[in-house]
Amino acid sequence: MASPTPTTSGRATRPAPPRRRTAARAAAALLLCCAAVPACASSPDHGSRPRKSAEPHHSARAQSAAEKAKRAEKAARARLLPGMPPPLDPRDLYAADRPNKLSRAVKGFPSRVYVPNTLSDTVSVIDPKTYKVVRTIRVGHQPQHVVPSWDLKTLWVNNDLGNTLTPINPKTGRVGHPVDVHDPYNLYFTPNGKYAVVMASKDRALVFRDAHTMRVVKSVPVTCFGVNHADFSPDGRYFIVSCEFSGELLKVDTARMKVVGQQRLPLAGAMPQDVKISPNGKTWYIADMVANGVWVLNGDTFRRPRLLPTGKGAHGLYVSRDSRTLYISNRGEGTVSLLSFKSGKLTDRWRLPGGTSPDMGGVSSDGKVLWLSGRYNGEVYAIDTRTGRLRARIPVGGGPHGLAVYPQPGRYSLGHTGIFR
């Protein structure tokens, strides 16, 4: 038998009969339900509607944003040069160039620095671990640049006055038979890997060739003097070319193989050199030896650029592995200027000791060393990218020029001493 239940007054009461006890429990359950779920308190029939959850609204908005992003991505892909690999990150053209992010095509390749010596007709091969020349390769007359092929499997030595390209297998070190190519001052590849573009400086032409056989597809005459360096737009549809000896820039339609724009730089005697596009694809930088700085250009509008002074004899342009900094070699004063892509301003300047002439080169795979040739000193410089300190200066042949650090991160090469995307 149940014991009496105490009350707040202290008096005992008898337990409720079973039927009343069941009803009390039902009422309590109903009250608990209404406390837990506000919608229970009033029925829609009495004019009060349940509160709608915010989840469907946010979910629909997120879905709409995702669909919009997909449409934008699809539209961007549609604008790409046919056959071109889409950028890993539309906001960063160099996203594939992160430290040691090597393609499968080059994994296992020995790390080397290949230095073309224009006055010696040789290529010096440096082991970057020991800072020693481990091999000297005899090539054609006046080699200017060592250029990685689009598929990353071959290094092409541009023998300008020898009118040949010497192929080097970077995996085995084997040197192939020279290929006849007239006036190959510099060499680039279209972003879809279909054509090689020879900068025929003396011939005053841009020569489109089959990227594998080097057979001429189309020769495009130009009216400027000294075509030498270039870089491609984010969609690969056009590229900007510098003309060293007439102080001009060209804008070239990649697919049509046609010059669609030309302008003279606003400085008497201008000598534009290396060309590099910013990570976001909106700004172009063109080094100028006479202007002693870089021209800042909007490639899409191709309007008159502005000059940013950097140092005497500005020449080579190289992007850091984190896509934050542009290294600018000032050959005439032996310095390297650092430009922030984010601010568009110079952040530092490294002075190399002992009378130097930093020219062309590249960044090590891990991003810790900037390698530059000493054009007038017969040497190569290894510069610490964290401190600007000169780690080593290595004697090579005469007139070292467009050296290639290899392998480097990236999915494919656009040419020169290594423009990787």
Task: Report what the structure shows.
With 421 residues, the protein is mainly β. It has a single domain, classed as Methylamine Dehydrogenase, Chain H. It is built from two helices and 30 strands. It has helices spanning 18-36, 55-79, and strands at residues 5-6, 12-13, 112-117, 122-127, 132-138, 143-148, 155-159, 164-168, 179-180, 186-189, 195-200, 205-210, 216-221, 227-232, 238-243, 248-253, 258-264, 272-277, 284-288, 293-297, 306-309, 314-319, 325-330, 335-340, 346-351, 358-363, 369-374, 379-384, 390-395, 404-406. The strands form eight sheets. The protein has a four-stranded antiparallel beta sheet, with no helix packed on it. The protein has a four-stranded antiparallel beta sheet with strand order 6-7-8-9, with no helix packed on it. It has a four-stranded antiparallel beta sheet with strand order 10-11-12-13, with no helix packed on it. It is globular and about 70 Å long. The N and C termini lie far apart (87 Å). Mean pLDDT is 89; it is low at 1-48.
Question: Can I get a quick summary?
Answer:
Helix content is 10%, strand content 38%.
Key features of this structure:
30 strands; mainly beta; Methylamine Dehydrogenase, Chain H; single chain; 10% helix; 421 residues; four-stranded antiparallel β-sheet; 2 helices
- Tell me which CATH architecture applies here: 7 Propeller
| Annotation, overall tally of beta strands | 30
- Terminal residue distance: 87 Å
The level 1 CATH classification is Mainly Beta
In round numbers, the mean pLDDT is 89
Total number of domains: 1
Helix content: 10-25%
| Structural class assignment | mainly beta
Instruction: Report the sheet with the most strands, covering strand number, pairing sense and barrel closure.
Output: 4 strands, antiparallel
**Portion in strands:** 35-45%
Overall 3D form: globular
Count, helices = 2
Order of strands side by side in the largest beta sheet? Answer: 5-4-3-30
CATH topology label: Methylamine Dehydrogenase, Chain H
Q: From the alpha carbons, calculate the radius of gyration and give it in angstroms.
A: 33 Å
Give the CATH superfamily: YVTN repeat-like/Quinoprotein amine dehydrogenase
